[in-house]
Amino acid sequence: MSELDIQIPTTFDPFAEANAEDSGAGPKDYVHIRIQQRNGRKSLTTVQGLKKDFSYSKILKDLKKEFCCNGTVVQDPELGQVIQLQGDQRKNVASFLVQAGIVKKDQIKIHGF
Prior knowledge:
Largest sheet: 5 strands, mixed
Order of helices and strands: HHEEHEEHE
Shape: elongated
Distance between the termini: 69 Å
Helix content: 25-40%
Radius of gyration: 23 Å
Number of strands: 5
């Protein structure tokens, strides 16, 4: 018998290599800072993706005191806890989180216009 007669067909998974590479590294967790337009010139800045072991209320208290704005922590069913601040505070929040050592600069994604 030749080698072609003995060959047994096997299933081929084209994504096997990609799944093996991703399993060790895991997804990179980003902190998303977004702006939401309210009415007129009013806007909200939202911060999501912070780790669960941080105290959101303490971070919010420091952000409010630092930037002289009001804010709240909202519980979202899909996103978890989200920090909301009044006004466009995207750059301020990003620099604050890096200076406080909460996240690294490459883990922050700033969205908006």
